[in-house]
Amino acid sequence: MARKQTVAVLTVTALTMALGACSSSSGESGGGEDGELSGTITVLTNRTDIVDTTLQDYAELFQAENPGVTVEFEAITDYEGDVSIRLNTQDYGDVLLIPNSVSKDQLPQFFEPLGTVDELSQEYRFVNEQAYDGDVYGIATFGTAMGYVVNTKVWEQAGITEPPTTPEAFVEALKQIGEKTDAVPYYTNYTDGWPLTQWQNNQGTIAGTDAVSIRTSQDDPWAEGNEQYAIDGLLYDVVAAGVTEEDPTTTNWEESKTLLGTGKVGAMVLGSWAVPQMQDAAEAAGGSADDIDFWPMPWQTEGTFSSTVSGDYKLAISKHSENKEAARAWVDWFLNESTFAAEQGGISPVVGAPAPDSLATFDALGVNQIELSPAPAGEETWDNDISNEAEIDLWGDKYRKQLVDVARGAADGDKESFFADLNSRWAAARANVVG
Amino acid sequence: MAVTSPTVATPTEPRKRSATSRPPRQRSGSLTPWLFLVVPLGLLLVFTYLPVANMVWYSFTSWDGLDAVKEGVGFKNYVDIFTRPELFRVFFVSLYYLVGALVQLALALYFATILSFSTRFRNFFKGVIFFPYLLNGVAIGLVFLYFFRPDGTLDALLGVVGLKDTPLWLGDPSIVNYSLAGTSVWRYLGLNFVLFLGAIQAIPDDVYEAADLDGATSWQKFRYIIFPGIKQIVGLSLILAVSGALSVFEIPFIMTSGANGSETFVIQTVDTAFRYSKVGLASAMAVVLLIIVLVISAIQRKFFPDEKGDLV
């Protein structure tokens, strides 16, 4: 009898422990007694590809300087989705990248402030992008300039050696490639979806540094003359001109790198971070890294190209971290001492650091780099709120996939009707959010 | 169309009493079954009923999935759903899968019947038919992406028999749902097949023997022995087919993520929750789907009540 009760108690205890284990947190004490840092910090990363190599090397270097600290990585494949959900618990590592779904006013709920915007902007770039109420909650691991990756050999075959300067010239150039070469002029990467969202990073190229607050003040961002019309309109025109892959629904990102590298594809709109990956793919496939170049988008203001420069994922410290000092030391070390930004072909987040090789053509062309200014106080969440309310995922791939479907004639409608629908949804949502 | 098998607690056999032992106390007898049930019941509560209860609660809030505060909004989400007819348009896509599921049941019944007789290589064929069900859904999605691409496996196969002018299997909006439903049939056929085969093999051999003596043909055996014997399983499969067709998710989500007119209600729900951060509205959509499935199952049971097989 007594034994049976013990078994019952044990079973229940085991079950409770098994469930409880999900929420127990790691890490021991905070700072050491003699001022030296100690403890274990868990770093969440989206880079499953380099977590056991490059990142591990960084951890060893860091631990050599701070013997008391142990750095552990947790690589997450679906970073955005998984971490957004984990933020509901208190266990989301010590150092992590801020998921895009967190809106600005929620930053203080989840992350430690790293300093004021005024202070940190002396040292780092892109601090505005995850700041709220004057405090910075995340610093970019590296920055990216927007433009398109090209295989110059393909473009030369079609007789084009200079970046087109107008959207019409861009579409015309792609048509030339289609006629004179065997290459697919433009590859949308429709199936993977996220490469389509890269187009949104062009915001600011036309409208300037206040692009976001201009958009949130408009009822019709997709009307001719507005920036969103220019960006999405160009994508529409490219697809409608029939210069994209035959079947967009079966594309493959990894394969697209090789296709561009070997000259089977002419161009893809991406960030400058993609250049080293394309060069590697070109060499792996027997091509030459020199064939890969990065050109600015075909919009010019007063004869000069512009390119929006923005930060990638921002490093932040969990509000629930038990080793905040060690976590901060890792963030500082990672940004200043590690060679991460340079290795990724990105722009260093540190003010005054030299430009990466991938932007050599940008320098030669004198491309004007644009960094977006923060939304005015009180309007930080408008853009996000309006697009969610309108169910137009500016930073997702859903409406752009529909746009591609309409443009290639696989869905009903035309450019005018599609943009009119976007405008009316945007206006209705804006009325709700802004009031 | 997945099936979760209910955990069945087997009754414990009472210990045999020896001549000298005292009679067992009443209490221990009544406690034992509950001990066995603690773990399955605990898992069921924690991983099924608690999340559903939470979902119902969320459906009355305007939660965005992150915020610490979950503001109650009453029935607003439900009003939203029923004032936006475009949310229900995606149920048309389910019709493709429903037709697919019926084809799947017919095929499964056919193969199960054939392979329950002594057919040559029957174990090999059983394996071939069941194998796709064992594969991971993501792997199937990726394999079929290659299968359906222009000049891919399917086009190459058709090319061998002389069919050159093939459509874009996934790129053409009028064909994409057939391709996806076909993939779904390929994947889940094995499950129905095994259910039917198991039921058929449970029919005692002597019934067949008697039928043989009476000179029954294979069709007569199927019509008068096999089909009545597995009626219950067929009915269950029908219910699962309908609710499965309404809540199709995995295959279209992996292969097209709902683009190009292949969006289903569940994909739409997931997008609402995680793309537009409207977890409250999405929960309400999930509750509505749950109610629809329950109502349809109830109607079905009214028209096809499960009678006990009166074969034996």
TrEMBL record, chain A:
Residues 1-23 form the signal peptide. Keywords: Cell membrane, Lipoprotein, Membrane, Palmitate, Signal. Pfam families: SBP_bac_1. Coiled coil: none annotated. This is Extracellular solute-binding protein.
TrEMBL record, chain B:
Pfam families: BPD_transp_1. Keywords: Cell membrane, Membrane, Transmembrane, Transmembrane helix, Transport. PROSITE patterns: ABC_TM1 (PS50928). Residues 1-28 are annotated as: Disordered. CDD domains: TM_PBP2. GO terms for biological process: transmembrane transport. It is a multi-pass membrane protein. It comes from the Bacteria. The keyword Iron does not apply. InterPro entries: MetI-like, MetI-like_sf. Residues 1-10 have a biased composition (Polar residues). One of its GO terms (cellular component) is plasma membrane. It is found in: Cell membrane. Residues 90-300 form the ABC transmembrane type-1 domain. The chain crosses the membrane at residues 31-50, 95-117, 129-148, 185-203, 224-249, 279-299. The keyword Disulfide bond does not apply. Belongs to the binding-protein-dependent transport system permease family. This is ABC transporter permease subunit. It comes from Cellulosimicrobium composti.
